[in-house]
Amino acid sequence: MLRAQAAGTARTDMSGDDLFGLMAALGWLVDLPSNAPRAAHLVQLITSAILTNPSSKDARKATR
Asked: Which string of b and e fits 34-63 if b means at least 16 CB within 10 Å?
C-alpha cells in the first residue's frame, strides 16, 4: 500500500487497515451466492475506488 501511495497510484487517504477491511468485506460479499455472478463487477468497483488512475488492465488483474 505504501509503495503504491508513494508512486501516486493509490489513494493517500487510505491506511493498510482500510484496505484490509475493504478486502475482507469484498471477500465476504462475493462468497454470498446472490453476489457470486457480480463478483468481477464488485472487485472492479473497489479497485477503482482505491487506485488513483485505474486502467482496464489493472481492473482485469484484480478480477483474476
From this structure: eeeeebeebbbebbeebbeebeeebbeebe
Residue range of the domain that includes 20: 2-63
Which helix (H) or strand (E) element contains residue 46?
Answer: helix 39-50
Give the chain's length: 64
pTM for this prediction: 0.64
Question: Number of structural domains, the chain?
Answer: 1
3-state class of 51 per DSSP? strand
The pLDDT value given to residue 58: 47
